[in-house]
Amino acid sequence: MSGWAEFIIAFAAFMAAHVIPMQPRLKSGLIAALGRGGYIAAFSALSLGLLWWLLMASGRAPYVEIWPQAEWQRWLANLAVPAAVLLTTLAIGAPNPFSFGGKAQGFDPERPGIIGLTRHPLMWAFALWAGAHLLANGDLAHVILFGLLFLFALTGIWAAEGRARRNLPDFARLAAHSSVWPGAALLDGRWRPRGPLPWLRLGVGC
């Protein structure tokens, strides 16, 4: 398999896998069979494996230049990607009733932690990662790849936000000190970081 065929198949497989969390019956069946921890581990491994295949397939696709690469584009990616990694590290495992499959247990709306920065930190981290790579790679395969992943992340943010607003009866109370847009609650004074810094997560992220 070579050329565009592998790229198209890899992309279709990646997108199909990410339909699973949005299908309650399918997701519930998998959790019943694997347990919640097993489901999370299996889905994470599947997602990372398919993303790795997709990235490799995009590199093997025919090279068609859309725009030339500039040094500043690469430097922007070098700054954005560590920020995305740090945001991901702070968000993984944090109680978050607003995300797909998120848990409300342990979430304190008065001290939301990273959720005060944004209600959807993982999806924003993914959008930041994809957007930085979109700008830094100007060939057709990578523009398609990172452009669609960027749109996928943004769509996921608004889909998760809409779902939370519909399904959480106390959404207003839970979301009082957070925002959809990163940093908006900090700028308007609704959220201020409290408590000790998560040094372990910061160390891992850095």
Describe this structure in words.
With 206 residues, the protein is mostly helical. 66% of the residues lie in helices and 0% in strands. The chain contains nine helices and no strands. The longest helix has 37 residues. The radius of gyration is 18 Å and the shape is globular. It starts with a helix and ends with a helix. The mean pLDDT is 86.
Short description:
By secondary structure, the protein is mainly α.
**Spans with pLDDT under 50 lasting ≥5 residues?**
none
Strand content: under 5%
- Anisotropy-based shape: globular
What's the end-to-end separation, in Å? 38 Å
Helix content: 55-70%
Number of helices: 9
Mean pLDDT: 86
Let me know the number of strands: 0
Radius of gyration: 18 Å
Largest sheet: none
Instruction: Give the class from helix and strand content and strand pairing.
Output: mainly alpha
Task: Give, in order, the helices and strands.
Answer: HHHHHHHHH
